[in-house]
Amino acid sequence: MRKVRYGGDYNPEQWPDAVWDRDHELFDLARIDTLTVGVFVWALTNPAEGVYDFAVLDRIVERAAAEGRSVCLATGTGAHPPWLARAYPEVTRTDFEGRRHRFGQRHNSCPSSPAFQRLSAELARRVAQRYAGSPAVVAWHVGNEYGGACYCDLCGEAFRAWLRQRYTTLDALNAAWYTTFWSHRFTDWAQIEPPSALTEHWRGPDHTAFQGITLDYLRFMSDAMLANFRAEKAAIRAHSGLPVTTNLMGMYRPIDYHRWADDLDFASWDNYPPDDTSQARMALAHDLMRGLKGGQPFWLMEQTPSCTASRDVNPLKRPGLLRLWSWQAVAHGADAVLYFQMRASRGACEKYHGAVIGHGDRSDTRVFREVADLGAELERLGDATLGARTPARVALLFDWDSWWVLEISDGPNRLVRYLDVVLAYHRALWDAGADLDVVPVTADLTGYDVVVAPALHMVKGDLATRLEAVAARGGSVLTTFLSGRVDVDDLAFPSDVPGPLAPLMGIRVDEWDARPPDVVNPVRLGSSTVESRLIFELVVPDGAEVVGTYGADFYAGTPAVTRHAFGAGHGWYVGAGLDGAGVAWVVRRVLARHDLLGPYADLA
Amino acid sequence: MRKVRYGGDYNPEQWPDAVWDRDHELFDLARIDTLTVGVFVWALTNPAEGVYDFAVLDRIVERAAAEGRSVCLATGTGAHPPWLARAYPEVTRTDFEGRRHRFGQRHNSCPSSPAFQRLSAELARRVAQRYAGSPAVVAWHVGNEYGGACYCDLCGEAFRAWLRQRYTTLDALNAAWYTTFWSHRFTDWAQIEPPSALTEHWRGPDHTAFQGITLDYLRFMSDAMLANFRAEKAAIRAHSGLPVTTNLMGMYRPIDYHRWADDLDFASWDNYPPDDTSQARMALAHDLMRGLKGGQPFWLMEQTPSCTASRDVNPLKRPGLLRLWSWQAVAHGADAVLYFQMRASRGACEKYHGAVIGHGDRSDTRVFREVADLGAELERLGDATLGARTPARVALLFDWDSWWVLEISDGPNRLVRYLDVVLAYHRALWDAGADLDVVPVTADLTGYDVVVAPALHMVKGDLATRLEAVAARGGSVLTTFLSGRVDVDDLAFPSDVPGPLAPLMGIRVDEWDARPPDVVNPVRLGSSTVESRLIFELVVPDGAEVVGTYGADFYAGTPAVTRHAFGAGHGWYVGAGLDGAGVAWVVRRVLARHDLLGPYADLA
Amino acid sequence: MRKVRYGGDYNPEQWPDAVWDRDHELFDLARIDTLTVGVFVWALTNPAEGVYDFAVLDRIVERAAAEGRSVCLATGTGAHPPWLARAYPEVTRTDFEGRRHRFGQRHNSCPSSPAFQRLSAELARRVAQRYAGSPAVVAWHVGNEYGGACYCDLCGEAFRAWLRQRYTTLDALNAAWYTTFWSHRFTDWAQIEPPSALTEHWRGPDHTAFQGITLDYLRFMSDAMLANFRAEKAAIRAHSGLPVTTNLMGMYRPIDYHRWADDLDFASWDNYPPDDTSQARMALAHDLMRGLKGGQPFWLMEQTPSCTASRDVNPLKRPGLLRLWSWQAVAHGADAVLYFQMRASRGACEKYHGAVIGHGDRSDTRVFREVADLGAELERLGDATLGARTPARVALLFDWDSWWVLEISDGPNRLVRYLDVVLAYHRALWDAGADLDVVPVTADLTGYDVVVAPALHMVKGDLATRLEAVAARGGSVLTTFLSGRVDVDDLAFPSDVPGPLAPLMGIRVDEWDARPPDVVNPVRLGSSTVESRLIFELVVPDGAEVVGTYGADFYAGTPAVTRHAFGAGHGWYVGAGLDGAGVAWVVRRVLARHDLLGPYADLA
Ligand SMILES: [Zn+2]
Ligand SMILES: [Zn+2]
Ligand SMILES: [Zn+2]
Hints:
Three copies of one chain form a homotrimer. The first copy, chain A, folds into three domains: 5-149 and 222-381, Alpha-Beta Barrel (TIM Barrel); 153-215, no CATH class; 394-595, Rossmann fold (3-Layer(aba) Sandwich). Helices cover 33% and strands 17% of the residues of chain A. The first copy, chain A, has helices at 17-30, 42-45, 55-66, 82-87, 114-131, 153-167, 170-177, 211-237, 257-260, 279-292, 321-331, 366-381, 400-408, 418-431, 463-472, 502-505, 580-593; strands at residues 5-10, 34-37, 70-74, 137-141, 244-245, 247-248, 268-270, 298-302, 334-339, 394-397, 436-439, 450-453, 476-480, 507-514, 521-525, 528-541, 545-550, 559-566, 569-574, 576-578. In chain A, strands 10, 11, 12, 13, 14, 15, 16, 17, 18, 19 and 20 form an eleven-stranded mixed sheet that branches. A nine-stranded parallel sheet of chain A has the order 5-4-3-2-1-9-8-7-6, with helices on one face. The longest helix of chain A is centred in the middle third of the chain and has 27 residues, at 211-237. The model of chain A has no long low-confidence stretch (mean pLDDT 97). Chains A and B meet through helix 2 and helix 4 of A and strand 14 of B. The structure holds zinc ion (3 copies). One zinc ion (ZN) is lined by residues 93-94, 110, 112, 150, 152, 154-155 of chain B. The site of one zinc ion has 8 residues of chain B, from helix 6. Chains A, B, C: It comes from Virgisporangium ochraceum. Chains A, B, C: It is an enzyme of class 3 (hydrolase).
């Protein structure tokens, strides 16, 4: 039966066979149809260099098949085995502090290590070759939650190769990095070091002396891990045409998922909200993940049925939340609802992480009952939602480059966080009930009436032109403080702020104030007064009309929010760090003009 | 005259001989009869490899003897000398961050260093040989405040040897550490690394990916330092039958003092309470120290007469506190009341640490007067309390393994600290005036009517059976949330919580909620309502009667405290993080049943 | 025309020539007459070892000359170039954590590196040789904001050489460092390590086991950087007699500017106050800088016209503040008012730092207008203030040694910070309108009626005698808690506190209480009651009269403030951490006696 897949991560290699029977008995009770298998079995399937042993994995996959369950089969490279780290010390990472790690934990493979590259691809090849024909296998799962960064000499070498590719000449690189500043002009590629606590950074990963170097390293590292993924995928593709994915992590800063999207056959992600009131944040994450593949459905690859373990305080999901949030995922485009984990491990750091089946092996617990009830509901749903798409006339631009450069900048205010700004504008759209797509800055914008670009610090390529086109044909474009500041190299535009967005916005910004969070500047919007904090741009209209004004400080009475008639549409500029009410006021004005307020907008 | 020993650490090697006369003159005024000598004289008595020079120490000991004072003589290995670190770089430790230290500070000898092992034992041998016949010497003092940890390659090698001893086979080790998780299966002993920031730990010493590895390293490191102590003791024993000790530190997490107890001829400890209101904490520490040697008296080896220096803020002990706390030590079993330090040093980091004699050399200061008054009191006391023992019918279980595994666990709530829980239950017993012993989980429990086991995360050996026996014969056993969770290897019991304690408690726990400290769940206990915080286990009675219930959240009305009739006695289970009033309510119920409330219980 | 110099840091090598025209056009508008040039051009003027290329710098200097502007010409050694770090890895520093850095950031030259020493001096020599004859050049600027510290082996070697120079024998060194404590007696110079996180320090740079070692390393490192400055200055002097300076940083702890003062031809400093209400702090900094050269005028080398970039939150300077603070500098002795920076860079970490000319290239911004208005004002002022001096009868002693030893001490209270105490007493003097000099402890005190020495922890040389002379001839000497504690080696005086200050103060201090900041002890002063916090010395009068008494705790009623008649004058002692009102009360009493209250003292 075609239906929303239901199941999750299953690691029976951790327990005796006798328990497997009980597992499948309980899976039946809960209508579990899909198991993610083998994510961490490298040490088991490849116990020594050149030695491969698939006996246990064979039995796991065969049993799943025999029970009629589908398998999302991992290549097993989510963590490397001890023997590999011992034989090739290069495979463990060197951290931001310059410390070469040794075997341990989970995320520890250097993406530039030849040994890791060769042996992970070889394992992927063998797994694909062996199980391509299994009737249970429906998808391939590569690696696990790619992330982090390595600063080793191999990565340094690979970074320099990546830079040669990007810049061709040192002159181009010196210009992009603005190396005349602080005597940094490089005269030999070999002089270039990864930006770390030992080189360019003076207080952690966000405080760098050279934003351009750090930005390029972020891009490079994202690409380096993508190359690992591609290598495994290529190895799989030689034996199987089934879709290949890896589990992403929503709004995860270290990796530019937009650069990865083309290589994923479908998107999937792990949803671990920080608290019980994260519904809006999750909505954004779902939309971002759906937006990776142009609106194509994704898998919810992991969620906990009850609690996490890795946080300082790990509260229980309240009754009903599991159901509510699972349906939210489906509503946002998920074609699979999967758990981490099907059964709790007995040892190591996830033994207290929630599981469908606990240490007591019971079906009469609240958690199991909720899981089983949801299984029954999804079964009744059948294929009603599969492959469904939501046509949206609102686009929210999400841009890793802007995220990175905003947060690695010195000045004006480190407390302005990219995600906070994006969340605020997304929240307003979500509360207003607008259907929306979260898309990259390279997306085709011709289908949208409203484009919202919060904190779009970097404007690159022909984006400004395409945004102008949206307004020209009658659409509305909204952007905020700290947008239009830098080009693709993080060089400030040598012109008035907001750079290439200035014509569309009909304003300029000569100066900007920053204050700690306890300083509030009231902003007058129509008959309302809202609060603004952290960042206060002093906006000089140049064609735009004033929509809102500051109420305090030496710039009281000057514009905080403006609207510029541009062609048949509008450019909206929000220069102040408005509170939720302020953002809602502006966003609803914009939506209302296009009749895009949802039917339940008043309930928010 | 036999009496409570009175005196303290005395380092006259730091000042000219002329001052020694004044020292002894003031000692006489203060009735000082015992001096701890030579704790940091390695550089003096062994100024180069193979060179020994006891001239100064001879004069110190001879002068003490001549003055009629006893000497607790240190081997001098509390800190190693510069020449040793220079000649053998191995003797300085490698820290948790993987950094090899160089000479400096105080606690810096790698316990696995052959050079340190050989030369510290040799120094101990020579000291014992030389001073065994001194009439002044009454005890030997080895090392100083053993503690910390080393992560060097020598310790790695020693750890692997310790593991081979413990597990014999890699299969056994892999099972104990649950290495199938995250691809950790070890196929060669050489693959095993000390768990550190460079290997298994992701955020400091408590955040490990593999609890089993970290637990074993804690055990190993405690044993490694014990081996250092044993080596020195053996060297001493060849020349002297006098008792050997080292100064412990009360509730000190890094060392499992219960594993050390057999090797100490008598216990001694250094008492530096964090503030003026630590009387209950000190009572627990005294009881724990007394419990090391089955109730035998101990020495209070160090306390400050006035103030510490190493804290950010070092308040003065208010007038009278010195006397009060010294008598508290005696009341809890101390046969010696000693100070750090007899005279203040002029330089380095302890020059502002309180001393019996200050830089001004005066006898007319408040502090000196208080010291002298107490000296006179102790002289009047004579031998009245020496060797005294307190028969107790209440036992509090204290368990380093549970301490360690509770605090290195991921989930459910890192804010639940073992010591906080133990302190809360001890405090309730102390306020109620119950005589009690603080004992290890291996202690003989047959003499106790009440056994309290707070946060007994690990249950090992036959402990569950012995606790059942206490209840079976009419006693009361009380345990709390997060007890009975793991076996000796930190593997979750594959059964209902609280594992082997479940039959005695007559309950099971399917799920547990954790919340930040600002969330309060009121608990109804009889006619009282108390508060609970941090941890809220959802208790399902299986024979137990409900004593207290939650007042809020989705589990309002369900049991928070239960009592189970077991044989002629009871098993009490407290599933909630009760406040002091709640703990007192439960503890007094238990004590009252056995008529163990003290005469002044109502004064608390 | 002789006038207050006006201009700032100018880095046209960062932008195309076309922009230079606009720069000078705007400079004319703003009456800019002085440009600091070449601070970071090492990579440009010396692009490879042995290769020098002054083409760009020639054009910059020539253009300035042609425009009639003066140049403060830097040697360009404020940051070293990539090729140098690559060729000589020794030039990058090893940090406090023992990590050898690699190329990056700005402050990274090891002062002990032979390569850095040789090549920086050679560059200075060539710059001086080439531009000595330029009519535009008016001063030489060496390095940039010297600071930080290095802990490499070369520095270790240089430290040992410095120690041999200071102590001659190991016996003298062992005595000074009090190495008998904790078995630290050094028997070979080679055993001595720089005090770092890997050796003597147990929690950051202030927490050391051996204060003497850390103190000497601070002195050594200050001297090591001074040697770098001297080497460049000597190279310049061979070709030019123009004055040489480097930009200092006001109250900057790592460098003892008093040890540098003789080598500076004039003082200059960079003023970046942390907030809008730092006028008193800036006044102290100006006075300290003026005091370096015996009252001779100094340059304000850098200030931002609008905002900083490197702080977490970088607020705008409110309108008018730039003018107010610039005039404050002139009033305190500045003969130059310069900005960082003349034009904003487009890339790297200072692109959002304020500038006279922003990315928009405008003259019609508020900031540019304020800069231009001030330029016009200074032009009108002409030479009226040049070279002016303020005769003062009040001296405030500022002492880096006391700063260091106070803050690296263990006990009594780490929350007592040297600068807070000095600021409090300076503030009181400043509010009272007293003209004052901020001078080193070696200064000639014969011209002062009042000498204030807050937190003078170390008393060295003949200072006590000279302070007694001030009082003897009718002057007033005021000191506070934690003064007179240690000698030049940080050894506690073997006598009553406050050591050599005791006769003058007529008191002794047997004990001292320390409490966290929420504990207040009211102090009665005349008819007022003020608050005291953090430190409460218990003062025993020995000739002094009681001026103020504690109101609480067991020492209620005992003296907190005393005054001792000494010769024709007074010694005042403040034993308590008084609040601002309390300090003001005492300070005004002292000033009033000498009729030194300013005319606007009541406005404060
Ligand atoms: Zn790498
Ligand atoms: Zn070691
Ligand atoms: Zn160095």
